[in-house]
Amino acid sequence: MTKKFRIGDFKCYATVGLLEDGTPGEVFLVSKRVGSFERGLCNALAVMISLSLQHGVPLGKLLRSWS
Fold first, then answer.
1. Most exposed residue of 27, 46, 53, 59, measured as fewest CB within 10 angstroms of its CB?
2. In what order do the strands lie in the sheet with 10-18?
3. Residue 14 burial (10 A CB sphere; 0-12, 13-18, 19+)
């Protein structure tokens, strides 16, 4: 499942991979700006989200901590 989103002028695509039970298990974030700081930040954030999900941190808890 892939969704496009925007934060101000920053455009990004989020792709979510599901585990066998249908829950989110990994996240990929891709910025349109190749080689940019934003793209590196997206990659690091996606790895952190994916590892958190794979180790049992509920997605809702991650989202609440960022809002």
1. 59
2. 2-7, 10-18, 24-31
3. middle
Task: Report the C-alpha gap between 60 and 42 in whole angstroms.
Answer: 19
* Helical residues (DSSP H) of 1-67, grouped into ranges: 37-54, 59-66
- Read off the amino acid at residue 57: V
Q: Is 22 helix (H, G, I), strand (E, B) or coil?
A: coil
Q: What is the pLDDT of residues 12-67, one digit of tens each?
A: 899 999 989 988 899 998 887 767 788 888 889 999 999 999 999 988 898 899 88
